[in-house]
Design goal:
With 56 residues, this protein is an alpha+beta fold. The chain has two helices and four strands. One of its GO terms (molecular function) is metal ion binding.
Length: 56
C-alpha cells in the first residue's frame, strides 16, 4: 500500500515531496498528493512531515 495523505492535517508545505526519493509526491492546491504507482513505501515522507499528515 502506498503512502496516504491525511488531508485535514496537510498544510501543503512540500517537505514530503522534497524528501521523496521516487518523486511520488506533488503538492497541488495546498495539499500533497501521492502517485501510488511511484511510491515504494520507504516512509521518508512520513518522517519528514511536520504535521504527521502522511501514513503508510
Amino acid at each position: 500500500m502506498a503512502a496516504m495523505v491525511i488531508k485535514t492535517l496537510c498544510i501543503g508545505c512540500g517537505v514530503c515531496s522534497q524528501m521523496c526519493p521516487k518523486q511520488a509526491i506533488t503538492v497541488r492546491v495546498k495539499t500533497a498528493h501521492v502517485d501510488e504507482t511511484l511510491c515504494d513505501e520507504c516512509e521518508e515522507c512520513v518522517f519528514a512531515c511536520p504535521n504527521g499528515a502522511i501514513t503508510v
